[in-house]
Amino acid sequence: MSQTYDYDLFVIGAGSGGVRAARFAGGFGAKVAIAEERYLGGTCVNVGCVPKKLFVYASEFASAFTDARGFGWNVGETSFEWKTLIENKDTEIERLNGIYGWLLDNTGVTLYQSRATLVDNHTVLVDGEQVTAETILIATGGWPRQPTVLGAEHAITSNEAFSIEALPDKVVVVGGGYISVEFAGIFNGLGVDVTLVNRGEQILRGFDGDIRNMLEGEMEKSGITLLNKTQLTEIVKEDNGRLSVSLDNGETLDVGLVMYAIGRVPNTKGLGLENTDVTLADNGSIVVDEYLKTTADNIYALGDVINRVQLTPMATAEGMMFARNLYNPDMVNYVVSYDNVPTAVFSQPTIGTVGLTEEDARQQYENVDIYRANFRPMKNTISGAESRVLMKLVVDADSDKVLGVHMAGPDAGEIVQGFAVALKAGATKAVFDSTIGIHPTAAEEFVTMRTKVED
Hints:
The protein is built from 12 helices and 22 strands. By secondary structure, the protein is α/β, with parallel strands linked by helices. The mean pLDDT is 96.
């Protein structure tokens, strides 16, 4: 390793990708330091995946209590305490923060709990001192896009949603992406009157059309007011603390909270990148090659800051790739694949998806077959709930290869994760058909769909 610099590797950002890269590089024998100005674990652990999933669990209990009656359970009077949820969430996040710190310490990584900025290609200013490194890795993630509407200072983003002091009676959620959809479901499940305002024609742009249609119907069925092709024009804070929200359709809403979830931007401002040879794209993301190297030979970047696939498992995979390629002599030129990356949206119902949507498949392949099942899940036949499940396969008719697997319904993320392995292996529809289903489950529908949907 280098004898010229203070460190072989300096990582800026201790989120999932940065920590993975740092501790594996340290495990391979590199002298590593990492800097984090906010919280160990990054967005996912602190204001993203983890607290969001905990909130989703909390919001699902109301319907679970109702469903229980159909199975003979006499559920007494119930009530919800927001303060208890926040306290228990904070305790869990503190535990995870500690684990991340232990992982770094256990591999000999020096942790600077301070902001780091770049002085030049090899020098970092951190905690009041300048340190040098042979290689620098930028893993600073993304940040919620800030609204520009009049009165935007009275709104919050998903960052603040996890720590609001009290649950509002009415909320406007602005945006049509997965974060807005998830929080609309969370607030609704906790008894809040929810209006989702989306400027697009439909929610979840880029997802399969049938899935989008189904989710919109289920959200409205659950009591969420969905306003597509609508924009918020002004927020006014009244003397009583309430918010008056004006929409471009002429409506004015009186609510207790406005939350914006209109996308995330690469977190590159104020890093001192102008002092280096690093090039930024027009959207502020860092330009890298297939090995995550920037236009500066010794500076690399990964995760949301490069704006490829903004998922925590993708950032950790990139972190592993980076460490192995640079510091493991037994592995070089390893490249992460961005094809068939599975993902879930923890909406209500949950969405699980991997591979091509029907729309994308029809653009890329001449002949596409669609298989689809839409049914009331077994649990609901007794619970009385009206929610349904949608499952869909997209197949290349010429090769019989399965191109996409999509689901909206309970446990969709858990189910699709397994089928993602099949897609990565290149499974055909014949392989799906020859697989024995587990009965009775919803998942067996994926291996029992035989009838093609008419074009």
